[in-house]
Amino acid sequence: MAQSTKPPANKDQTSFGSGGSGLRYPSNGKTIYHRPLNRTKTSELSQASFAYLFAEMVTYAQKRVTGIQDLEKRLNVQGHPIGLKLLDLLLFREPPRTQTRPLTIIALLHFIKVNIWQHLFGRQADRLEKSSNPDTPDEYMIIDNEPLVNAYISVPREMSSLNCAAYVAGIIEGVCDGAAFPARVTAHSVTGNTKEDEMWPAKTVFLLKFQPEVVEREALIGKGQ
Amino acid sequence: MTVFAVIIINKAGGLIYNRTFHEGGLNKISTNDYLVLAGTFHGVHAITTRLSPVKNVPDRNSASSAGILTRPEPPSGLEVLESENFRMQCFNTLTGTKFLLFTDTTQANVDVTIRRVYEMYSDYVMKNPFYQLEMPVRCEMFDRKLLSYIREINNR
């Protein structure tokens, strides 16, 4: 991503047909798909440019929405394809020995907490939790004390239930779906009065609710071992 | 060493943010008076800008410029206003937003402080998707960061 793609200097030189030039097809014919997958492994991006881009994404998603849930849904949908692709990319980059896909819920959650977070935000997620409520054994939580996407965002009071980390929830959902653990993922702000909550005012809980068949399969795997 | 208040004025002369930090430093005035103060200061600033001559008229013959035209520094208007009990520093950004900092007269490094406030404004206000340009600033995150920064200075 550090490499800038030059706009074609001369239209006749492009190896693509008419109308094929533009930002998407650089004149030398080398698209992002021609680059080795490990090239951008350690490259970093500017947080400021991401913040501006994300602010525009939120503004874009805000157009013609019917409510806060609809807005969160749109942000979620924007993140979903990223998660699907990220799962494959990060597994590809693993050493061959550990290249297997996560097969249990715990392995999947660990993969998200460590690998996905490390790749996206440069650090691990802060905590993993399982729902303590016996009625909802299908719910798991990933906790981030200060999500990078919300670093500069203050949500107005009339939209207080909105959390723009719904975008990250979409990425997580994409990873889960890609790994064949279909789930619904939502992002929730935590507002409490404990000392810890005051220390992390932007603390966000990602709630993963797996489909019943996932839980069923998990139980069967447990028996088999 | 105390910072009393921060005021932000948009490029049309409207008050978009005002916050006092220290009790007893400045007398309280009504919100309406703050609006008048912002508008008046904006006008005075505009006039003082026209008073001041343009600095660094580019010398086309000098070898150092090497064909690159240097833009003359824009004329700056009123920057500091001092009274017996407080000192007001103004920082005018390139886009015409003004930051006013009211401090006591012994406060040092005000320009550093005011730049830091500007930095916070560009981070927590301009990068916030829910902020509408030129409208009053209502960003919880900006409030929080500004308060903790100023508190740190006032307790020094």
UniProtKB/TrEMBL annotation, chain A:
Region Disordered: list its residue ranges: 1-38
Query: Which stretches are annotated as coiled coil?
Result: none
Q: What keywords were assigned to this record?
A: Endoplasmic reticulum, ER-Golgi transport, Golgi apparatus, Transport
Q: Which GO terms describe its cellular component?
A: endoplasmic reticulum; TRAPPI protein complex; TRAPPII protein complex; TRAPPIII protein complex
Which PANTHER family does the record associate with it?
A: 41-2 PROTEIN ANTIGEN-RELATED, TRAFFICKING PROTEIN PARTICLE COMPLEX SUBUNIT 5
What job does the chain carry out? Plays a key role in the late stages of endoplasmic reticulum to Golgi traffic.
Q: What is this protein called?
A: Trafficking protein particle complex subunit
UniProtKB/TrEMBL annotation, chain B:
Kindly list the places in or outside the cell where this protein is found, as annotated in its UniProt entry. Answer: Endoplasmic reticulum; Golgi apparatus, cis-Golgi network; Golgi apparatus
Supply one GO CC term from the record: endoplasmic reticulum
UniProt entry keywords in alphabetical sequence: Endoplasmic reticulum, ER-Golgi transport, Golgi apparatus, Transport
Taxonomic superkingdom: Eukaryota
- TM region(s), chain numbering: none
Q: Which Pfam families match?
A: Sybindin
**Gene Ontology process terms (BP):** endoplasmic reticulum to Golgi vesicle-mediated transport
Q: What is its main location?
A: endoplasmic reticulum
Task: Tell me which PANTHER family the record gives.
Answer: TRAFFICKING PROTEIN PARTICLE COMPLEX SUBUNIT, TRAFFICKING PROTEIN PARTICLE COMPLEX SUBUNIT 4
- What protein family is recorded? Belongs to the TRAPP small subunits family. TRAPPC4 subfamily.
Q: How does it assemble?
A: Part of the multisubunit transport protein particle (TRAPP) complex.
Q: What is this protein called?
A: Trafficking protein particle complex subunit
Q: Which organism does this record belong to?
A: Diplogelasinospora grovesii
